TrEMBL record:
InterPro entries: Dcc1. Pfam families: Dcc1. One of its GO terms (biological process) is DNA replication. Belongs to the DCC1 family. GO terms for cellular component: chromatin; chromosome, centromeric region; Ctf18 RFC-like complex. This is Sister chromatid cohesion protein DCC1. The gene is Dscc1. The lineage of its organism: Eukaryota, Metazoa, Chordata, Craniata, Vertebrata. Keywords: DNA replication.
Length: 392
């Protein structure tokens, strides 16, 4: 391409009826380079925090299988990726100087000849989103761990997953995945992440609670060493420690001995699930009586321990309770609300909150979610919510 002279630039300004005195003295003359093809370059708009990650030498990873919408992950956050179109052509010009840089550089050449290396009509826009973690539990529940003597485990043809496998399959950051593995009480067995089969988990918990009762240990001070010695002949020692970690808080006393403070609410919740999973519906008053009799001595059962696990039907006579686990509901917002409104036409905010709390985006409230996906009305002086659309 021919190189423009200053005279040609001035003539162009005059034709365009522009006053050179109102413009910067330096002029960029652009031409397309030999490699300036479309589609070879992608623009990604990053917030300052993500720019700092890259500048510090850390990586950003795009995750998603072919049938999934791509997300971008830093070490601890997840972002939706969406293409944003722009009405102006975006040009990639290596070494291009901004007006501020030209003002600061008085020695700038009067005419700067630059080659366009590429162009784009859109860019990728990032929006912070909830990590897509429901798939994590689903994968691990394909093959729950039933114990070292299980014939099913030895003959299983299901895949098992390492940390690296989960990082390639789950659309979430590494920290979010590792945190969720703790939340769902997964454990590593022979290098693979596993979830305990619920019956096996209850068997382990029963061993521990019976030992606590027989030894008259306070629930706030259960010794690890004694548990391993007493129960090690019944189950693998690492499984005993895992169940203590799942249902207790580990700490070390002044003498350096390891103890666990057992979580009363979590133990009561697990026993309630065990009772409810074998019945479609349970008479509420009968359930509360059996539940209290089933938990370790010294523990007190309360219905608020069952948030997101079971639902009380106060409209039936007598009142009933049934299992409804939040992890079994759809992950998509609209599908979640549709599912809940099929179960119950009208919900109070207290009842529905445990089943939609996990849908809240950063800085979003349950009230904002209800405003978007439900319609409120008054029923016998109580505010209730029903679907905004017909539910089939």
């Amino acid at each position: 391409a021919a190189v423009r002279s200053r005279a040609e630039v001035d003539a162009t300004l005059q034709t365009a009826k522009l006053n050179p005195a109102e413009l910067l003295p330096a002029v960029h003359c652009l031409s397309f380079g030999p490699q300036a093809g479309g589609g070879e370059c992608c623009l990604l708009q990053l917030e300052p925090g993500l720019c700092a990650e890259l500048e510090a030498g850390r990586s950003l990873v795009i995750r998603g299988e072919k049938d999934e919408h791509a997300v971008l992950c830093s070490k601890d956050k997840t972002y939706d990726m969406k293409i944003a179109d722009t009405s102006n052509m975006l040009l990639f010009v290596p070494g291009c100087k901004t007006p501020e840089e030209l003002n600061a550089d008085q020695a700038s050449c009067n005419i700067i000849h630059s080659q366009i290396a590429g162009f784009s009509k859109n860019y990728w826009e990032l929006r912070r989103c909830r990590p897509k973690l429901r798939k994590l539990r689903k994968l691990l529940m394909e093959d729950p761990y039933e114990g070292p003597d299980s014939q099913k485990d030895q003959a299983s043809t299901f895949s098992k997953y390492t940390t690296e496998d989960l990082l390639s399959l789950i659309q979430a950051s590494e920290e979010e995945i590792l945190h969720q593995l703790q939340v769902i009480d997964a454990c590593k067995i022979e290098g693979y992440w596993r979830i305990l089969d619920f019956d096996y988990e209850m068997k382990l918990l029963n061993h521990v609670t019976q030992l606590i009762d027989s030894e008259s240990w306070p629930l706030s001070k259960v010794p690890l060493c004694a548990c391993l010695e007493e129960l090690g002949s019944l189950e693998p020692r690492e499984m005993i420690e895992h169940i203590l970690l799942s249902y207790g808080r580990k700490y070390v006393d002044d003498a350096g001995e390891v103890f666990f403070e057992m979580h009363e609410d979590k133990i009561c919740r697990a026993i309630a699930q065990m009772l409810l999973q074998n019945a479609v519906k349970f008479n509420l008053s009968e359930f509360e009586e059996v539940w209290q009799q089933s938990v370790p001595e010294g523990m007190t059962t309360r219905l608020d321990q069952l948030q997101g696990l079971a639902l009380v039907d106060k409209s039936s006579r007598p009142e009933t309770i049934f299992l409804l686990k939040v992890e079994d509901l759809p992950e998509d917002n609209q599908e979640r609300f549709n599912s809940l409104f099929r179960i119950r036409e009208k919900w109070t905010e207290v009842d529905i909150t445990p089943y939609i709390q996990d849908l809240c985006a950063e800085k979003q409230t349950v009230g904002a979610l209800l405003t978007k996906y439900a319609r409120s009305s008054m029923l016998n002086g109580v505010k209730v919510y029903n679907s905004r659309r017909p539910i089939s």
